[in-house]
Structure formats: structure tokens, C-alpha cells
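C-alpha cells incoming
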């Protein structure tokens, strides 16, 4: 087993060197992907047969062209995902990340996820690099659109639902997510890059580290000398890059990391 790989089931499995790094951290960045919401019942995109891109074709559902060609199918599919997220609850990993912010000097939370489980877990200021499903807008004039309800009735996953119309220009309302081929929201991306370049510890949780430019962030942090911690039950391209590779489900690993840090901070001397 390579020396940066640790299997984590409880706080006692958390290496002392890791809690030492966290306890002394000046600025921590937490970077999350779909894996952190997996234990809340939200499917990931690429791992396991239930993952979204194994079930559905990204090209016909998650591109601006797909929305132009078949707006009702695309809107319907995102309403299906919004309903699933509305029925889900934050898990132990979301809660641990929210608490961690109170145990380190400074913490920036950057996510690729379009769900609001971090916010519902108590994390106030989350940077969403790939948008948010609860923030729709007009495709044509960009006017924001308030969903009638936070949790729509669960449509079938393939039921076409015509998108609502913009009250200003009559254009179709689109989901507030970043589709393949679209640029990331400039302000959020610049903020994320700056945080990655200024932090001294970056924790990457539940991402396959394959989708750029977001996947660049841990490398940027590493290049400028930060310690990189990865939490994932499976190998990723980050394995060789990170200082601590914590194998396990985020809902188990993150509460264990938090408990180990708290124990260290309570310890006399
Ligand atoms: N805890 C931690 N990690 C987990 C868990 C878990 N319980 N379950 C699965 N994982 C890991 C998987 O091993 C995988 O490496 O989460 C990762 C999920 O990877 P992806 O499905 O590729 O999701 P993500 O990395 O967030 O995708 C990036 O791609 O499709 C686009 O815009 C979409 O934001 C998304 C981006």
C-alpha cells in the first residue's frame, strides 16, 4: 500500500500528521464533487451503474444544443433531478464540512455540485462552479426565474416538461447549471482559483478529478506548496498528487477527520 494511502473507518484511523496539518492550517479550501452527495441518495455522474452518465446521454441532456433541440426533454430531466435533490437530506460529510469551518482559521468551500446540500448543512458561503439547480434563468435575456416550489412533484425521468416562459421577453427558462461546452461563471471561477492559490491545505472530496477546468484546482494548490488531502472510496488521477489519500465514503471519513481534529484541539499542551 503506498505510504500516502489510508483506509479510514473511524477517528483513530486518521493519521496524526494529517490532524497536525489541519490544526496548523492558515487557510483551508474544501473542494467537493458528486461523491459527497452520494450517501444522500443523489447519483454521481460516472461511477457505478446507477450513475447519471451511465443511465442518460449527456450530449442529449446537458448541452445548450440539446436544450435548443428539445427544451421539454431537458427541462423535464432537470426537474426530475431537482425533485430528487429536494427530497434528499445533507449527510454526515456535508455536516462535518460545515462544522470544520469552525475548527480551522479560514475555510473556503468550492463545489462542482448543483445541489444545495452544503447550504442546508449550514455552510453559508459556497462557491458553485457548475451553477445551481435552484437558480433558473431566461435562456434569451438572462432574467432570473423563481421556481414556484422548492421541491417539484417527481416527474418520470424521461417525461418531457415544457419549460416556463420568461416574464420579460417570453424566452424559455433554462436550468441554472453549467452545461458541457459552456464557460464557468467568471466571478466564481476567479474566486476559486484565488482560494486554491492562497490556501495551505486543500481537501478534495468525492470527485473523479476528470472534468476541467474545475479539476485543475487541487493541482494549482499543490503547485504553490499547499498540502492536498483526497477523500474517495476509489482511485482517481489525484492519487499520486495528494499528500493524504483517505480511502472511504465521505460520510464516514469526514466526521472521522473532524473528530480527530477536535480531539487534538482538546488535548492539553
Ligand atoms: N464518498 C466519497 N466519494 C464518493 C462516494 C462517497 N460516498 N461515492 C462515490 N464517490 C466518488 C467516486 O469514486 C468518484 O470518484 O465520487 C466521484 C464522483 O465522480 P463523478 O461522478 O465524475 O462526479 P464529479 O467529479 O463531481 O463530476 C464533475 O462532471 O458531469 C459533470 O458537471 C458535472 O459537476 C460534474 C462534473
Amino acid at each position: 500500500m503506498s505510504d500516502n494511502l489510508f483506509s479510514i473507518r473511524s477517528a483513530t484511523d486518521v493519521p496524526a500528521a494529517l490532524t497536525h496539518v489541519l490544526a496548523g492550517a492558515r487557510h483551508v479550501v474544501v473542494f467537493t464533487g458528486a461523491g459527497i452527495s452520494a450517501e444522500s441518495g443523489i447519483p454521481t455522474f460516472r461511477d457505478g451503474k446507477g450513475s447519471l452518465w451511465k443511465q442518460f446521454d449527456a450530449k442529449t441532456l446537458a448541452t445548450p444544443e440539446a436544450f435548443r433541440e428539445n427544451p421539454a426533454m431537458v427541462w423535464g430531466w432537470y426537474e426530475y433531478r431537482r425533485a430528487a435533490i429536494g427530497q434528499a437530506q445533507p449527510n454526515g460529510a456535508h455536516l462535518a464540512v460545515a462544522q470544520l469551518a469552525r475548527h480551522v482559521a479560514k475555510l473556503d468551500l468550492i463545489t462542482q455540485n448543483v445541489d444545495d446540500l452544503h447550504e442546508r448543512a449550514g455552510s453559508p458561503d459556497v462557491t458553485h462552479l457548475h451553477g445551481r439547480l435552484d437558480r433558473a434563468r431566461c435562456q434569451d435575456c438572462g432574467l432570473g426565474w423563481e421556481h414556484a416550489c422548492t421541491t417539484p412533484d417527481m416527474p418520470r425521468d424521461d417525461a418531457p416538461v415544457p419549460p416556463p416562459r420568461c416574464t420579460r421577453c417570453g424566452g424559455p427558462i433554462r436550468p441554472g447549471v453549467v452545461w458541457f461546452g459552456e464557460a464557468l461563471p467568471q466571478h466564481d471561477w476567479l474566486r476559486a482559483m484565488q482560494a486554491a492559490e492562497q490556501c495551505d491545505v486543500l481537501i478534495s472530496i468525492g470527485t473523479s478529478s476528470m472534468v476541467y477546468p474545475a479539476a485543475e484546482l487541487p493541482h494549482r494548490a499543490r503547485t504553490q506548496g499547499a498540502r492536498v488531502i483526497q477523500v474517495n472510496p476509489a482511485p482517481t488521477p489525484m492519487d499520486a498528487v495528494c499528500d493524504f489519500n483517505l480511502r472511504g465514503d465521505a460520510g464516514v471519513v469526514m466526521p472521522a477527520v473532524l473528530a480527530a481534529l477536535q480531539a487534538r484541539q482538546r488535548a492539553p499542551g
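note: The pocket of adenosine-5-diphosphoribose is lined by residues 33-35, 38-39, 44-47, 51, 112, 130, 206-208, 210-211, 231-234, 236, 249-251 (CB under 6 Å).
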